[in-house]
Every structure is written in C-alpha cells, then in structure tokens.
Design a protein that fits this description.
It contains ten helices and nine strands. By secondary structure, it is of the alpha/beta class.
C-alpha cells in the first residue's frame, strides 16, 4: 500500500491541531510517509507543542502565506506517492487513510486523481461537502440568493445525501487526497487564491487532464467545519468573494467573468442584507459591510485579467 504525506496548514487553530495530530499518530502511522505542519504565523501558540516532535516536520513561516501557498510549501517537503491535505479541524478515524488509499489500488483506477471521504460533524451528522464545477448560471444564482431558495442552483451538492461512493466534480479540501504526480503536473495550488476555491480550481484543472475525483462512503473522518475562520467573519466573506471573482476570470470568458464581478459587487450585497434581516441576524450586517469594503478596495487595485486563463463552458 502506498505511503501518504499529510500536509496540515495551521493558523490559530487552538487545541484542534493537537487533536488532529493525535489522530494521525493513533490511526495513520502505518500509512504515513511524513506529517508536515505549516504554521502560517499563528499567534496563539497552537503549534508550540510540535517544536521538538520527531514525527512531525514543523515549518514556522512567521506570516500568513495563504492556504494554497502554504500547502505547496508543505508538499515540496515530502516525496510519498500520495499527498493528503488535511484541515487542522479534522480528525482521522480508524479507516480514514486505509479506505481512501485503497481506491487508488483498485483495478481501473488509473484515471482517479483525487479522493475524499465522508466527513462527520460535531452533531454526528454526515456533512454534504462535494460540489459541482461552478458555471456562470450557478454563480449568479449565488449572488442573487436563488441558490439558497432553490437547491438545484447551488454548486454545493447539498441535496445529495453523500451516502454512496461516486465520481464527483470536487471533494472538499478538508480531506483531499491526491496523487503526487498529478499535483506536480498541475504545479500545485494556484496561490493567487489566498483561501477558498483553491481546491476547487485544482480539481477542475485535474479534470481537464482527464483525472476523476471520487467521493467514497466506505471511509470517514471527523470535521468540525468553519474552523478558525469563524473568528474573522468579515475577512472570511472578503476572501470567499475574492476567490469567486478570481475563479471566474481564470476559467470563464471575459464577458461572463465581468457579469459575475458586477453581480458580486452590486447585487449580492442587497440579497445578503435581505436574508440577514429576514433571519433576524442584524449583528452580522456590520461584518457584511466591512467585508464588502475590503472587496471594493481590492477590485480597484487588482489586475483581474492577470488571473484569466483558458475558459470552459460557463452557462
């Protein structure tokens, strides 16, 4: 059975990182090549317990490099056949690694490039984490709030129960197992995505080369969800919207990307405020305003065309 290098990007994750590492030591040692933790300038001391650890390669960056760039840095420090990008708010269970690795060893698996597993949340429920590749239609549905009202317009596959193994467009980056050769051919994550959608972008580029992403129901891991991004709601909104715009300019036609940009800047703030008012979440409107101020500031100084690339079908 091939070995796996596990890459964990840590940023102020508190005790979650310790729990994640404990689970790797308990359930992953027989499949592990290297465990590499990239600490992205944490200020809470969450990685201090690893400074003298012999079984973990700890890299202290001294600053927040962004998720994709930190993942690339970690992957460069390993050489195992498979690479697992694991969130610090995830915990391995007994069959997490063996079940996922086994997919690559089955007959006819040569075109499988990425594998994800069932993720169980704090409430014990199975999280619905897979996604379709976004199109302009789906992104506009997100901007207008229609995706919230009509499940079929959401690129997140929330209407599917995630109760069986199947090929999907994308498995979530919280547990993202990929062939090293494929990761290297793709030059890793595009670090222009500071956080959010860098994994979706990688899945799309892998698919463009003919590789499949497979979600398996035979293996599980725990995933808290939200992670430390819960602490910085305005920044979380800014980075998620920024990544959406970058994705559109990279993969859609210029006309379609501009439509997504305008809808994100002009229509979505209104739809978000309406939903917050209807749900009585008035305290979050201030975070919404801060997030959009950051986004407008970024748009005015950023060369969006620098993020464009080959377009795909976008409607």
């Amino acid at each position: 059975m091939p070995l796996v290098d596990i890459i964990i990007v840590n940023w102020n994750s508190g005790d979650q990182l310790r729990q994640c590492i404990d689970s790797i030591r308990l359930y992953g040692s027989s499949h592990l090549g290297k465990c590499i933790v990239i600490d992205n300038g944490s200020e809470d001391g969450s990685a201090n317990f690893l400074k003298n650890a012999r079984d973990v390669d700890l890299v202290l960056t001294g600053e927040n490099l962004g998720f994709g760039r930190a993942c690339n840095l970690g992957a460069d420090r390993g050489n195992s056949e498979l690479v697992l990008f694991l969130n610090p708010d995830a915990i391995l269970l007994p069959n997490s690694l063996a079940g996922a690795i086994n997919v690559f060893q089955k007959s006819g698996a040569e075109n499988i490039g990425i594998v994800g597993v069932q993720l169980i949340g704090e409430d014990g429920e199975l999280q619905r984490t897979c996604a379709r590749f976004p199109t302009v239609t789906l992104m506009l549905a997100k901007c207008t709030g229609l995706a919230t009202l009509i499940g079929g317009l959401n690129f997140h596959m929330q209407s599917w129960a995630h109760d069986r193994t199947r090929q999907v467009d994308h498995v979530i980056g919280a547990f993202y197992l990929i062939r090293r050769t494929l990761f290297e051919v793709l030059d890793g994550f595009d670090d222009r995505f500071f956080v959010y959608l860098e994994d979706l972008d990688l899945s799309y580029r892998a698919s463009s080369l003919g590789y499949q992403s497979v979600f398996i129901a035979e293996a599980q891991a725990f995933h808290k969800g939200g992670g430390v991004s819960e602490q910085v709601k305005a920044h979380r909104l800014f980075y998620s919207l920024r990544s959406r715009i970058l994705y559109a300019f990279k993969h859609f036609s210029m006309f379609s990307a501009i439509i997504v940009l305008l809808a994100t800047l002009l229509i979505e703030p209104i739809s978000r405020v309406i939903f917050l008012l209807l749900r009585g979440r008035l305290s979050e409107i201030a975070d919404l305003g801060r997030g959009y101020r950051m986004l407008w500031g970024w748009v005015f100084v950023h060369d969006l065309q620098g993020g464009s690339g080959d377009s795909h079908e976008d409607s």
